[in-house]
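The protein record quoted in full:

***
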Amino acid sequence: WRYFGDLAYDKEIAFENAILEDLVCESDKDRLGMIISNLLDNAVEYCNRGGRIWAKAKQVEGVVEICISNTGSIITQEEVVHIFELFWRKDQSRTDTDRHSGIGLSVVRKVSDALGIEVKAEIKKDGIFTILLYLPNTCGHGCI
């Protein structure tokens, strides 16, 4: 989060990390870190000014569920199915206006698939956008 804190501060975004320190999972540290960084980067970029981002995690039946959510989303229920598509952007006319190009979430999906992590996206009517990661007990890929 430290990497994104300055940008979030500039946008007056509150961040809550509700992930308990004693929660443990096995995965590829670098690749899982890349996934989480990408999700936090997107959350800061697309969160509304003065909004909120929060991260939660829990262990359920041998699976660690990680949720990263943010307020201010303008994606509709019909559009959320496209967010993992390569180069998909809600506003296609914004191709050169910011630092996002529609690649990040497709990479998140590919890397998650390689690690055996299920990834889903949800949008609620109140503009809450959530990415959910389901990490298996062990990744099965020689991870530590």
Summary: The beta strands are 14-18, 52-60, 63-70, 118-123, 129-135.
